[in-house]
Amino acid sequence: MALKVTIDNRTVEVEPGTTVLNAASQAGVYIPHLCYHRKLSIKGSCRLCLIEVEGTPKLQPACSTLVCDGMRVKTDTQQVKDARRAVLELLLLNHPLDCPVCDAGGECKLQDYVFWYGRGRGRFVFEKRTFAREDVGPFVSRDMNRCIHCTRCARFAAEVSLAEDIGVFERGDRTWVGPYPGKELRSPFSGNVTELCPVGALTDRVFRFKARSWELTDTPSSCPLCPVGCPTLLQTRDGRILRIRTREKSRTPWICDLGRFGFAARREETRPTVMEDGRQIEVPWDVAAQMVAGRLRTISKESGPESIGVVCGTLATNEELFALQHVFRNVLKCGSVSFGPRTPAPASHEQRRVLEDALRAQGRAGDLVGCDSVLLLCADPYEEAPVAGLKLLQALGLASSGAGEVGEAVGVVGAARDSARGGSAVRITALGPRRPEPPSVQTTWIAATPQDCADMVKRLALELANMCEGTGTARTHGDTGKAQATGGPGTTGTAGTLKSAAVEGRELGSELGFWSTSRKLGIVVGGELVGSSLVYGVLASVLRVCAARSALGVETVPLFLFGSGNARGALELGVLAGQSRAGSGGRGDDSGGGVSDGAGFREQMDAAAGGKLRALFVFGLDPLAECYDRAKVEEALKKVDFLCVQSDTVNETAGMAHVYLPLQSVFGRKGSFVDLEGRLTGLSAEQSPQGEESLLFGLLRTVCEARGVATELDKAEAIFSYMKGRYGWNLNENLKALSDSEGVFPDGSDGRSGNGQDVGSKRVPARAASRDARAASDSVSWKRPPRAWLLPRDFEGEARAAGRGAAGGSAGAPVRGAREPGPPPQEAEEFVLLSGRAGVSRSVWARDVSGHPKIPKSLFVEISRADAERLEICEGESLEVTSALGSVRTAAVLSESLMPGAVFVPFGFPGPGPGVLAGSGDEVTVVRVRKVGVGAEC
Amino acid sequence: MAEKILLKNVGIPGSERLETYRSRGGYRALEKALRELKPSEVTDAVKKSGLRGRGGAGFPTGLKWSFVPKDVPGPRYLCCNADEGEPGTFKDRVILENDPHMLLEGIAISCFALSVVEAFIYIRGEFALGAERLERAVAEAEEAGLLGPNVLGSDFGLKVHVHRGAGSYICGEETALLESLEGKRGLPRLKPPFPASVGLYGRPTVINNVETLSCVPSIVQNGPEWFASIGTKGNTGPKLFAVSGHVERPGVYELPLGVTLRELLFEYAGGIRGGRGLKAVMPGGSSTPVITAEQADVKMDFDSLAAVGSALGSGAVIVMDDATCMVEVALGLTKFYRHESCGQCTPCREGLGWMVRLLEGIEFGRGSTADIDLLLEIASGISGKTLCPMGDAAVIPAQSTIARFRDEYESHVRTGGCPFKSAAGKVE
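YS: structure for the whole thing
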């Protein structure tokens, strides 16, 4: 039933529950407001939106007054004008009139309103209250003098980000807003407050003093930096990005700090070099490109196409991925294209199927609505893919989604949420080495290494298989598997160093039972697990859990946080070596059937070390900083006859290259990505001297021409439209339209209609259907996974069995670097080494953007506070971490969230990193930690 | 003096103890309610008695109770507002410290009427003795089966919590009280929704003043007609008047509503101190507009005081003799409100500080006539524009003293200082 309301003589019909403010905006009447923000709960405290309601003597706040039928509202009476003028005058009492030097000048609500509705002159002749300006976090600066106490930031921290890092202190006119004692704005969402602040009180430290808002041009784009792929707005001046913001009314109303500030870490090298006598000499582009083409042709002629390998980084666009594999697989007939140095290639048909089915089963964060239990497997979504993490919390009703204009807003905020946060509504269990963020969300954390997690989810799959009224096969297999599983880490831990009590503890027994029977279970698999060699076992187990629970009549939503950047795009387009070359066909040229699928990164390195791989093309990454077993990779890279690196910086690997070719940053290349949930998202490019077409295309053209092959696929737009046809994407959009959109599913839906809640109609990448007839029948909906998934997979037990043999003990996983017989040095202590990407605000990019003291400037080793206290290690103290392979010296970072008994060393920092310590991702690496030098004061 | 109802036990040794209270007829009303009455009959009796809230607003209590939705499943709460913070008010304190069981009995009966099984008493943080005695009274009552799972052996159970505030005036505002009780900053909530439907922890909640709830046992015991026979029509029952200021015998006086101010001041409170003349009175606490000596025959009840442009408020009568500087009065009270403003909404947060500085200017001889008008203008920018009623209250001292004693302000401006202060200092 629509309600009729008349606002300033304009009558509109609105839904029940609409506020006067929103009804007015529908009627085309603007009512000024400061504390109200459509993405936050309603506070009603700025008193600027007061309006007159006929029949009510007092003025009413438009933001919180609900429309009733026949209501007559006036916003242009003298009473309303006086009230606005009074409020604005009061707001200006203590507000500095420093608009000319204020960063928010030109986009300040207060400035606009005073201009429109305020008095010409102030009458306050007394001294204003003042505060010192302060940086309240790595990216946010606070000028309390300008604060108008709208509390948007504090509401954001309390209701949305749940970081509870910024709050309101004191009262009356002494009220101030700032971080809680001992805290800073360090959550992955800290930057959002700069966008929320209606004045210049919280400003963006990256953008500060760079430009005036009216100089900026808005260009819609998508964020390439994590697999969530949020729609963003690039704000450019002279074509260069100066600031990134959320889009108006976007499906992702908040973006993370990586997406907002990460662009500022971009670097752009423009000069190609070639190695001559051990020195890299600058050369013109054509010379370098011709050299690459020539060397590749020669080596291919001499040693065959299989002696050429390609490694591709995670920030490659779909178009680059497609062109890269097209040229190398179809023109050069070389199959060994791998994606990232740590992504394990599927070794068998079986594993390939697991990957495909996992992609098909992939849920969306929004699907978790109504879950009564969530299992996080080595996953910290809030840190590793923040917006996905936030959506997850929103789906569970823990964080405000801000969509409910009035539903929760008028009056009491979140009584339901309070009770949910009290722990009654949804049970979140985190299984992994790290307690997930934010701590304000009640989570049961069971400390476990990734290996343990893999084992536990397998055990869950087996329990469930046994519970099913399934086939006899399932049961027999299950029994075998169970023996393996219980004989594994359940009884051992690893190498005696890992205090993985939880695995053995009774609590897991009851948890297993709970996960078996809970009504709706969400399983989130963390990116580091997906990127490790455990991936196929874990994916298979999760799929089996889904299938068994489905057979038991309960619902499961799996969510795989695929790596970083365009990882899902690479999977979809078949770049992973060993993947069937779904995207490899070009121009009807599928004669490449003879070309082998080639090797993954590790096999490539083995081949290089063995002299079989002679040429390596590295695109858009630094394998030395990102790989396991760095010594071996370094040796292999030295050994290849021809190393060509194309990347946006002259990184360590590029420093070794025979030919280095520059590349625009990912913000300077036009193209598309595939996001976590399967949407195609478009990337707009900022202007650079190299143009918006990826420099890769130019190189590939030269390579093709050298082979006498003409290619038309040298423009992103052309490749995109070719891919549309090739994969049967049902889209009208070209790349430009894709960037303007918020991302579209390849079947043509815009993703907004479902908004992540249409559990039943999972979008399926067209690839699956086109490549495998088997999939066609169940490709539309995967709500109930096929019963085939009730069976254990062959490979699930293999690695484990092999590992046990190798270790010769009861250890659940092979242990490299187990200590030699004999007493260890007294000051050294053994830990399990964990490695991976650091959370958003501790990654390398943050260092390049902000000089904040808490952001690590170089490689660090994270150690739990408990262990640190026992070993008397202080924050920042220099530690030596030693494994059987090597050692690194780093600064200690004390962690509240890391499990005791493990240390974490992040990838990504230049120079020796975890790659020096870890032999491969397959094994548990044990390291010793020793203090070196004089420690800082504890 | 009329029969004492609310103060009948005050002054008796050990009045705060259960045995004293029972020996003087205590908890019989609760027994009567549980054994003889249905919950709705208790509510009806309260409605019929004409009891109006004693916290300040004077809202009919029975009507307030009837706003609680009947058909909502889940818990509902009763909160007793014992955060007595209004300047000049100290009437609830007398009950809390001397007769806590009367309050508990009132709470128990009210909870029975409202089907509430959990009640909270939010007591002002400074009331250390009151809180201590209240807590002991709750323990005694639970021990004696007067509170707890089966009150007096019936199947009605009630848990009473005593919660001490932390010293903020605004937490006496009912929704700020709820926020504070929930462990949050004591900030008033937007209304609607009203606490009767969405209150403590989002549940239907009734909030009543100490004195209001203390009236309930005698209503149940003696009947609503008896209660309604006290006082005047529409303003029934006994009232505690906390008389302070320039009188000979300041203190709490229990008198029927409708007693005249003159009678209260001159017959009970011993007249103006030192034989001076009466100048002005704030009849219901610092949030009520001053009235002048000429209005001393006004009846002390809700409607009569409203008719002369003031209010009964909490019944805190602040008396000022003829040596009082009204600018100083306004300054002192505005300072208080500025200090106690919660700071969430603009007019109150920003406006009061400005008013204080203007008042300071006038009091200390730096003011101008324009400042007096500016004060009124600021006050009208605050009054009625704030989120909670405190904005209205906070400007009343300045507004009403200017309205009634403008000449005094003007003489400050004219003479460049306070005429009530001689060169030797303040006039005695």
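YS: worth flagging: The first helix of chain B runs from residue 18 to 23.
IM: good catch. Also Residues 18-229 of chain B form a domain with the Rossmann fold fold (CATH 3.40.50.11540).
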